[in-house]
């Protein structure tokens, strides 16, 4: 056994070669089995006419595996006998293969699940030891629960990707030709300036663009890791705790419930009605039932569809089938959002216009060059037919092509996709700190268009901190100080109904302090009440009773049940727990506090219903308990011998009703008011009683406190479900509260609202909420109470389950859209101005006022620095005072057209004046004039960045001190511009300007501020600008058709 392999023994070895003093308990059992079979064989050999061969095969089989581990007949026995030490001979790879292949036979050869647990040093009830040393050892032996991912894209990947741009490649070719001709004509010392300058400018644009994309890729990767960091409930050293899925190790005991994702491959230890969805692994949509006899295998990546249970982790990370599959899949952060797709179309349209203008400029400049209408710096004609050297001709043509290509570079708004990426990444990061984790990028922007939010009650509008504040036993209200009057039989029944019909747990610390209770908030509240007020002892309870069958709770049934057998007298009891009115409907009798059972007639039921309604009207969640003792004959059995999956549901005895108080979250009323002022309707959808729902909705401000709820504002799920499709569409807008709703009702409401043109956001936490979360435009799952299925179906995870965070997501959604609009306005102003100026100057003067390097510098300011400056504004209160942006509303509004056209017109006028009259006005040289044009154009963009911050408000400086990044980028741009003009003269083709010229440039650029303030007084219509053009085209088409018809009619009549 030194080679760490499992030893093999022939059965006879156990008889002949091992002394009894060295036997382990397992070997003693093998020896007993051998003697039994041998004796049986000997007796059978005495029977005549029976072939001996078939009986002797038992002894002629292959050698058996001796595990050397002590088996246990039950979990309770294993708890006493299992140590925390790992068997050094355990073969982890073999275990992994057994689970992957669902090899039940080999598992039985190991001795079953309990023997595997023992070999892994796991106590099925108390888990592993779980200290750092134990976890480290298990990680070293069996691996960690992560899988290998393809390496992330590096910086140079984005650099190479940027070089794939056609315009960049053309510019590089032009730069290379210009460099070659320049060096040949002027020598290496002087001739490299023009071509080298273009090279450097292109390199800067590429590097800055690549760095921005690389940074965003890193950001998305980081958020992806956070998204994948699922919390798993395990038991370690007898304490239930939540750990990261990445910290899970082989041997851990994991608790599974409906909606959980199975975090590793493992074996079923125990539980009830456990069904899993393995469609992610097998593609099969049917749920697979998991049990300890026929199918104890659980696979990583599967989802729990029903029931609950405990799993023994056998393999993790790359040793699981899910890990192998996921390691070959690379995460794609290139998902295109609807806004990005719209911007792609806008970029394409503007690019076509820019290409057309650049082509015209190219043709005009080439014609002027070859007709001898262009002059060099000395005033001589650049081209004289038959006399100009071929090198000079090539140089001139290359310079013209470079200028035309640069116009295309400036005209194509490549910064738009970058701006979207920047603002989405920035908002995702900020939303994370505001308790919202974005799983799907489109949700960031879509949330800004939301017109309706359908929200849960529990944990979203309320604190989800439940406490039993009211207790009714029969028709008697029992106060906390009067619990001692309750009969002992009733107490015992409550202990059964609470302690054995639960998915929670109670752990008593060794120190004897307050018990640690885990589970859902409802379960925790009821367990805490039973332990602290009714004196329930969970450990003793489990020893006294055996669970026969469990019906787990889900949001459709709204109840859970259990059948149990009392070990002392074998009596069988059925217990139900759930929504009070549903449990009440199953009862025909009720218990009194003295233990007597009374018949519940119609009048008695009405009294009980009034009690429930009174508690619900006080914002209490009502949970009822019912019991019935049945005979063994009343139990039904399946073919496999298990008890039937249906428990007795009628003729029960009502044990009692508890009322749980869950206070509203602080600030939720303000959040609801903010949504209303933003034009967003709030609808509360809850599984609670209609009276509880009304009370909470009023407390939260969804229903008005001082007004009676109108007919149709509050409905029950069944009522809404039973409407005709036409009635649902008609009434859905009016509904504010839907009580006693099922997940199907929520889905139905989402579908109706979408049919009416609403953009719908939905919150959900349960597995059954998944269809509604997927159907909604924005699915919002809960980070604390939400199941993994719900989170996977959602677009955004609300980390604190707080409705105020939902409103924060709404603000960020609007902010994303608004920031994109700011940048579009800023960039299109530059595009329009640059195109018009270069075109007019090229046609009239035969040259462009801005060189290739200068235009590339403007492109850098506009695309990257401008995007950074304008895409990182934080949400403001004014955004929540506007109506939601419609699905079809144009991206460029009339307000934006007004702002950008006024600024572009001013820049065109002032720069053309400088182009044609600048030398005479300022009495300066042509070189100084060209430098002033370049300097003024750049400074106009810097000043216009301030105007772009506010699309409608006249005060563009409001809140500017809060955006340090904006101020920093403006300062960097100005410093770099000073360096370009004053120090990089040959590189940028500029000359130094004196202080008067600088002041003149600043003064001309600063005029953009008063222009921006003044034009905001000009009113604009809400009707989109281009709709007028479409209408004009329609009228023109109709007139043309009328003329054609008239001509056709005239020709038929024979008139000329």
UniProtKB/TrEMBL annotation:
The keyword Nucleotide-binding applies. It catalyses: Ca(2+)(in) + ATP + H2O = Ca(2+)(out) + ADP + phosphate + H(+). Gene3D superfamilies: Calcium-transporting ATPase, cytoplasmic domain N (3.40.1110.10), Calcium-transporting ATPase, cytoplasmic transduction domain A (2.70.150.10), Calcium-transporting ATPase, transmembrane domain (1.20.1110.10), HAD superfamily/HAD-like (3.40.50.1000). The chain crosses the membrane at residues 166-183, 195-214, 350-370, 400-426, 828-846, 852-871, 965-984, 996-1015. Its main location: membrane. It is a multi-pass membrane protein. It holds the Pfam family Cation_ATPase. It is an enzyme of class 7 (translocase). InterPro entries: ATPase_P-typ_cation-transptr_C (IPR006068), ATPase_P-typ_cation-transptr_N (IPR004014), ATPase_P-typ_cyto_dom_N (IPR023299), ATPase_P-typ_P_site (IPR018303), ATPase_P-typ_TM_dom_sf (IPR023298), ATPase_P-typ_transduc_dom_A_sf (IPR008250), ATPase_P-type_domA (IPR059000), HAD-like_sf (IPR036412). The keyword Zinc does not apply. It is found in: Membrane. Belongs to the cation transport ATPase (P-type) (TC 3.A.3) family. Type IIB subfamily. Catalyzes the hydrolysis of ATP coupled with the transport of calcium. This is Calcium-transporting ATPase.
